[in-house]
Amino acid sequence: MKQNMSIIGVPMDLGQNRRGVDMGPSAIRYAGVTERLENLQYHISDLGNVPVSRPDGKNEVQDGNLRNLQQVAESNQKLAELVDQEMEKGSFPLVLGGDHSIAIGSLAGVAKHHENLGVIWYDAHGDLNSGDTSPSGNIHGMPLAVSLGIGHEKLTTILDYTPKVKPENVVIIGARSLDPGERELIQEKGMNVYSMHEIDRMGMSQVMNEAIEYLRERTDGVHLSLDLDGLDPEEAPGVGTPVIGGLSYRESHLAMEMLAESEILTSAEFVEVNPILDDKNKTATMAVGLIGTLFGEKLK
Ligand SMILES: NC(=[NH2+])NCCC[C@H](N)C(=O)O
Ligand SMILES: [Mn+2]
Ligand SMILES: [Mn+2]
């Protein structure tokens, strides 16, 4: 029997300053995500998009250094409810962004179903800021902290429980741009970070082996949150906060193959695709390639 999968788009661009990332879900759909997955072991329902309000033109930093807090909180609430509902039905949620602030809602919905949820945060950034530490006031730099219970109440209490995730259950892969407050938090909580340094030294294969075995032993489900800016901007230019020296498509592809083989994933999201900044939908196409591999496409 085929497993059910629910595709949920979140056209969110209020968690940061560059317009266009709201078109990410369309770009990924245009690149053929559904067709790709239907050829595999899934029965796909595309649920369309979660409503996101339009920027009010002010885009100001309110409520303690948080841009568009109200709108970001509202959409994440709706996303969390939908993810929760789909998981309740036994369907695998695949969330398409949109900026990374949507991980707040994805994780709120998913973690309700796992006492000990593991998270793989595949990203150039830690997204571990709060209003107090953020250099930008952009909520897309905060979702992982929010999920650990750190940040504005309107975000940490979505679906009425907090925290969603334990710091020791998180593995960050690909980090190369961390703000001072984020580094402090990583130290304080002793979080698992495979920065580009470790990836260069150990190779992606060993990094993924370690990460998978670590999470398999201690968690009861794993969410993959993949920010396309984890990849190198030479290869994946369609992102709002590019950082040079990133992961290659090959390394990322290998990571997806190893995750597919491990069968530890219980939910996933692909975020930060900005077609306005992209080169002929290359980044969305890359996302679809990674998604295909993650869900079982094989060479032989
Ligand atoms: N999901 C992302 N692309 N996050 C980028 C965050 C950049 C920076 N650390 C900030 O807090 O503003
Ligand atoms: Mn990032
Ligand atoms: Mn991110």
How would you describe the overall organization of this protein?
Helices cover 37% and strands 18% of the residues. The protein has 300 residues and is an alpha/beta fold. It has one domain (4-294): Ureohydrolase domain (Arginase, Chain A). The strands form 2 sheets. It has an 8-stranded parallel sheet with strand order 2-1-5-10-9-6-7-8, sandwiched between helices. The chain has a two-stranded antiparallel ribbon with strand order 3-4. Strand 9, helix 10 (249-262) and strand 10 form a beta-alpha-beta unit. The longest helix has 20 residues, at 69-88. The structure holds arginine and manganese (II) ion (2 copies).
Strand order of the largest sheet: 2-1-5-10-9-6-7-8
Amount of helix: 25-40%
CATH class: Alpha Beta
Number of domains: 1
β-strand percent reads: 15-25%
Could you list the spans in which at least 5 consecutive residues all have pLDDT below 50? none
- The whole-angstrom Rg is 17 Å
Structural class: alpha/beta
What is the CATH-assigned architecture?
3-Layer(aba) Sandwich
Major sheet characteristics? 8 strands, parallel
Number of strands: 10
Give the CA-based shape.
globular
If you consult CATH, what is the topology? Answer: Arginase, Chain A
Element order: H for helix, E for strand = EHHEEEHEHEHHEHEHHEHEH
GO molecular function: arginase activity
Enzyme class: hydrolase
EC number: 3.5.3.1
Cofactor: Mn(2+)
